[in-house]
Write a structure and sequence with these properties.
The complex is a heterodimer of chains A (122) and B (107). Helix content of chain A is 0%, strand content 57%. Chain A has strands spanning 3-7, 10-12, 18-25, 33-39, 45-51, 58-60, 68-73, 78-83, 92-103, 106-112, 116-120. In chain B, the strands form two sheets. In chain B, strands 2, 4, 5, 6, 9, 10 and 11 form a seven-stranded mixed beta sheet that branches. Classes of the chains: A mainly beta (122), B mainly beta (107).
């Protein structure tokens, strides 16, 4: 059974950093691309970043490019999101999601974690 | 970026009703469209991918159709557990984008 569990969220001051983790189980983590998606309170879903199964291909949303870094450790079945220079606009629930490849460069999300709240506030 | 416009933004319906939600893309995305259901305080749940393929375990009352720029999600006979917010998502190109959601309430 696929299981994704995020951790590392909490309250952080503006300008500070935070690292989120997503531990995967129930599938061969090293075979799947993974995404981060976030949802500000009361708002819709916003895609954040993707990393290929081997970590060689990475894309970011413009809103986080240069501040956030997605990475993975396949030996630990863990996905990461390093978030630097956080601002109030980054306050959101952050979800990790597994990606299924349907065509070259095209992946849909089949499983999501339960989410982890990050609050940026002084 | 590809914009996805969902309509309606909210909808009231009764158990047993047939409901349709539409999603229009700002440019052609072939069939690289997915639908998700989200209940308050919960993670999104995958319903449909490739515009019309049902995710494993999703009831057959859910169906999707469309290609290019116009897509629909249909629930053939609403059940109490279907009242939620529904999002479309394109994965044709990066950045991946979502529609703004359709909130489905009990009438």
């Amino acid at each position: 059974q696929v299981h994704l569990v995020e951790s590392g969220g909490g309250v952080v001051q503006p300008g500070r950093s935070l690292r989120l983790s997503c531990v995967a189980s129930g599938f061969t983590f090293s075979s799947f691309a993974m995404h981060w998606v976030r949802q500000a309170p009361g708002k819709g879903l916003e895609w954040v970043a993707v990393i290929s199964y081997d970590g060689n291909i990475i894309y970011y949303a413009d809103s986080v490019k240069g501040r956030f870094t997605i990475s993975r450790d396949n030996s630990k079945n863990t996905l990461y999101l390093q978030m630097n220079s956080l601002g109030a606009e980054d306050t959101a629930v952050y979800y990790c999601a597994r990606a299924i490849k349907t065509a070259p460069g095209r992946y849909y999300f089949d499983y999501w974690g339960q989410g982890n709240l990050v609050t940026v506030s002084s | 970026d590809i914009r996805l416009t969902q309509s309606p933004s909210s909808l009231s319906a009764s158990v047993g009703d047939r409901v349709t939600v539409t999603c229009r893309a700002s440019q052609g995305i072939s069939n690289y469209l997915a639908w998700f259901q989200q209940k308050p305080g919960k993670a999104p749940k995958s319903l449909i991918y490739a515009a019309s393929s049902l995710q494993s375990g999703v009831p057959s009352r859910f169906s999707g159709s469309g290609s290019g720029t116009d897509f629909t999600l249909t629930i053939s006979s609403l059940q109490p557990e279907d009242f939620a917010t529904y999002y479309c998502q394109q994965y044709y190109s990066y950045p991946i984008t979502f529609g703004h959601g359709t909130r489905l309430d009990i009438k």
